[in-house]
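Hello again, I could really use a second opinion on something today. I owe you a coffee for this, so here goes:
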Amino acid sequence: MEPGFSPAPALAPNHPAAAVLGRVDHWVFDLDNTLYPASSNLFLQVDQRMKAYIGELLGCDRDEAHRVQKQLFLAYGTTMRGLMTEHGVDPRQFLDFVHCIDHSQLQPNPALGTALDRLPGRKYIFTNASTDHADRVLERLGIGHHFAGIFDIVAAEFLPKPNPASYEKMLLAHGIAPARSALFDDIPKNLEPAAALGMTTVWIRTESEYAKVGEPGAHIHYVTDDITGWLTELMAPPAGA
């Protein structure tokens, strides 16, 4: 069985790992709750600041701010896009506010760094967050030097995943052929446009509430609860080698 593969046939077909290495030379990674465990609760800080921003903007209590946030996220893909559309919020101001968090709880992950180093091809970050936030996360994890580029929400002209246009912009910006690439993301819905374009998809399954948007299906080719373990096993020599 391939590394990190979920045995549930409804989630992912059994593609041989060697086939992945043979057809993928551009590896695209989501950031939050993908390159670090959701259990670190780093994104919880962002979530709390989103609620605080909405509460201040609309003059509402925390429960109402949570309801609005959830509604906007489901309707627009990101809370920010919903606030831009429905309330004329300045996206850069919003990003600066919600990403003003303590990144120190993230610990370096040398095992992930080793796996990325062994992975042949170029690696990229594709995130609905800002480059500034991504840089700080990658610095804390100690893996920033492995990535050839970061495509953030600003580069996407504030069109968030899963808007298909953001994927097309990302691929064009970095000269990536979809059929020669793979996308790792913790939200099933975000993998649908990637699969439709011909990208190989890997779902990083978590228990986060917001990550349960979209249903697993044929657009998900691989499933794992541990990206470090999945990549490490992918690059491990065959048994008996």
Notes: DSSP finds ten helices and six strands in the chain. The chain has two domains: 17-38+107-234, 42-98.
